[in-house]
Amino acid sequence: RTCNAFQLISSMSSGFDLSGLFESE
Amino acid sequence: MGCASSKQFKRTSGYEDPDILAKETTFTVNEVEALYELYKKISHSIFKDGLIHKEEFQLALFRNSHKKNLFADRIFDLFDQKRNGVIDFGEFVRSLNIFHPDTPMEEKIAFAFRLYDLRGTGCIEREELKEMVLALLNESDLLLSDDAVEQIVNQTFKQADMNGDGKIDPDEWKIFASKNPALLKNMTLPYLKDITMAFPSFVLISGASDDEL
């Protein structure tokens, strides 16, 4: 099984997900 | 007029002409104006000076102004193009433009590279990647042994560091990211496609359409 650190970071870090900016309504 | 009161909001010194911002980005003038509604909200959440401070950025992202997060810090620092510790409206719009669904993939790949190049050396080094994995583990309460982290980092370098010099350069990153598009999922925010729908108050305020502008 390949494990990709970048994939792990981008899919799991909440700080990398900017959708929160639009959900503060 | 019922909608006139919203116009009384003073535009701050960081405000830039929506026409110019629309010309430089994928956004229409209407969309830039709608983004200003979002910007106003975030930039007045704590300091009320019309600029987005890191605490306000964190508050908008996490509902918590003190939450420490390496990746949110990195994104804030990249948005803060003038490196003066705050994000002004122009920086906000130009940076969000990278996350627009219609922005070319190359721009998203380049932004993601800068995000991961923690020390700004022009390459992603093994130590930086390990630091980011450890930060992620810390953030997510996942437990992984140091051996497992080393393995993940080694495996990733085996795939991405094509010339085997121990660092990932921009060209290697471009190839690696193109082969693994899932890596760039967070670089696209579908919300930006319908930003005027998300902030309909603007439409009432302006009454203008892009055809007219």
List descriptors:
heterodimer, A: 25 residues, mainly alpha, 32% helix, 0% strand, B: 213 residues, two-stranded antiparallel ribbon, two-stranded antiparallel sheet, disordered N terminus, disordered C terminus
Question: Could you provide a short overview of the structure?
Answer:
Chain A contains one helix and no strands. The model of chain A has no long low-confidence stretch (mean pLDDT 83). Chain B is mainly alpha-helical and 213 residues long.
Mean pLDDT metric of chain A: 83
Structural class of chain A: mainly alpha
What's the total number of strands of chain A? 0
Envelope shape of chain A: rod-shaped
Quaternary organisation: heterodimer
Distance between the termini of chain A: 41 Å
Specify Rg of chain A, calculated over alpha carbons: 12 Å
Shape of chain B: globular
Walk me through what this model shows.
The complex is a heterodimer of chains A (25) and B (213). With 25 residues, chain A is an all-alpha fold. In chain A, 32% of the residues lie in helices and 0% in strands. Chain A has one helix and no strands. The mean pLDDT of chain A is 83. Chain B is built from eleven helices and four strands. Chain B has helices spanning 18-24, 29-43, 54-62, 70-79, 89-98, 105-116, 126-140, 146-160, 170-179, 195-198, 201-206; strands at residues 52-53, 86-87, 124-125, 167-168. Helix content of chain B is 53%, strand content 4%. The model of chain B is unreliable at 1-9 and 206-213 (pLDDT under 50). Chain B is mainly α and 213 residues long. In chain B, the strands form two sheets. A two-stranded antiparallel sheet of chain B has the order 1-2. Chain B has a two-stranded antiparallel ribbon with strand order 3-4. The chains are: A mainly alpha (25), B mainly alpha (213). At the A-B interface, helix 1 of A face helix 2, helix 3, helix 4, helix 6 and helix 7 of B.
